Amino acid sequence: MVSTKVIIVALVLCLLVEVLYAQESRPRAGNRRTRNRNNNRGNRAGNRGGNRAANRGGNRAANRGGNRAANRGANRGNRGGNAGASRRRCEEIQVPMCKGLVGYARTKLPNRFNHTTQLQVYRVLEHIWALIDRGCSHNFRLLACSLFLPKCAGRGPGREPCMKTCKKTKRICQPRLESFGYDWPAQFDCDSLPKRRCLKMEPHNTCSVDYTLCEPIDLPMCQDLSFRTGMSPNMFGQCNRTEIAIEMGQFQPLIDSNCSPHLKFFLCGVYMPFCTRTEGVLSFPCQELCTDVRDSCAPVYERLSGGLPWPNKFQCHRYPMSTNANYTCVMPNEGAALT
After folding, report:
1. Alpha-carbon span 110 to 297, nearest angstrom
2. What's the CA gap between 159 and 143, in Å, rounded?
3. Distance between CA 11 and CA 8 in Å, rounded?
4. Would you write out the chain's pLDDT as a tens digit for each of its 339 residues?
5. Cβ atoms of 237 and 133 closer than 8 Å
6. DSSP element (H, E) containing 264
7. How far apart are CA 281 and CA 213, in angstroms?
8. Is 81 helix (H, G, I), strand (E, B) or coil?
9. How far, in Å, are 212, 232, 246 from residue 207 at the CA level?
10. Which helix (H) or strand (E) element contains residue 223?
11. What range does the record give for the signal peptide (predicted)?
12. Which partner from 42, 313, 326, 328 sits 20 to 30 angstroms from 171, CA to CA?
């Protein structure tokens, strides 16, 4: 009996020890789970932080690399664009009061007045075209054209007229302009012009007569017309036959386009008005003829000249109607009956 009781007591003690051991073991397991959870959270946070840092670093590096590549590409594009723009700014002169009439054929824009197109230049020069043609000096044309259409000089800026060229031209031309009721143009500020690397003065020339003469028509474009004699100077004050022929030559491509069968007759009558039986009377082309030529040829001229409008010299209100009893005008094929 005693041994049985001892065995039972021993078993109870063993169970108590196991229970106590189990109770002590549970917190340890919980601590491990807590530590594991904390470790996992730490790992996640570390991963997130690491990823963020890595992303930030990677993005910065990528941005720096991308920006450098973009900047290099942009710089190359700018260099190419600037070179292309520089090439585009040198262009053939199309403005009729300058084309072929100054000592250079190409200009570079923009000019000192920030004109970027020849149409803008034309809109200014058309208002002083009459002064340019008056013939006080060929250098007045050079001054006007090179101020607004500087000579193309390679990669550098366009060449403007020299200060000395401007001052000498002003001394010659200002009195004559004032006699016609014109002031010296405000844009022709001689003191603002360069002294070097500029266009020098050309030999002075002017019309030798101030009245009209009936002379043989020797302009190359007008040799096959029925009229044989014409007036000089013309209505624009031009008397230099070489300059007139050069200016007329600008319109040869327009004649070649066959826009009007009467264009050549009209041009000859404008630049050297025909002599009729009434000596000393300027006989211009009739306004009806002008209107017909303009309507047929103005769109072609605009295309050939790079967008310039029909020249101011050819505005049809300048010419008399055939019904006007106070002025004589002529139509094609009238020369044989009048000469």
Report:
1. 29
2. 11
3. 5
4. 445 554 554 454 444 445 444 444 444 444 444 444 544 454 454 455 444 544 454 445 444 544 454 445 444 444 444 444 444 569 999 999 999 999 999 999 999 999 999 999 999 999 999 889 877 888 999 999 999 999 998 888 899 999 999 999 999 999 988 988 889 999 999 999 999 999 998 876 666 666 667 889 999 999 988 888 888 888 888 888 899 999 999 999 999 999 999 999 999 999 999 987 655 566 889 999 999 999 999 999 999 999 999 999 999 998 999 998 888 899 987 754 444
5. yes
6. helix 263-271
7. 10
8. helix
9. 11, 10, 17
10. none
11. 1-22
12. 313
Contact by Cβ (8 Å): 169, 143? yes
Whose tokens are 């189990």? That residue is 22
DSSP assigned state of 237 = S
The number of helix segments (H) and strand segments (E) in the chain equals 10, 6
Name residues whose C-beta falls within 8 Å of residue 61's C-beta, 6 or more positions apart in sequence. none
* Burial status of residue 269 (CB atoms within 10 A of its CB: 0-12, 13-18, 19 or more): buried
Structure pTM?
0.68
Question: In the chain, what's the furthest Cα-to-Cα distance?
Answer: 174
Instruction: Please enumerate in sequence order all residues whose Cβ is within 8 A of that of 225, keeping only pairs 6 or more positions apart, or say none.
Output: 217, 264, 265, 268, 335
**Cβ density class 72-100: b for 16+ within 10 Å, e for less:** eeeeeeeeeeeeeeeeeebbebbbbbbbe
Residue 107, sorted as left (phi over 0), alpha (psi -120 to 50) or beta, turns out to be beta
Residue for token pair 């300059």: 243
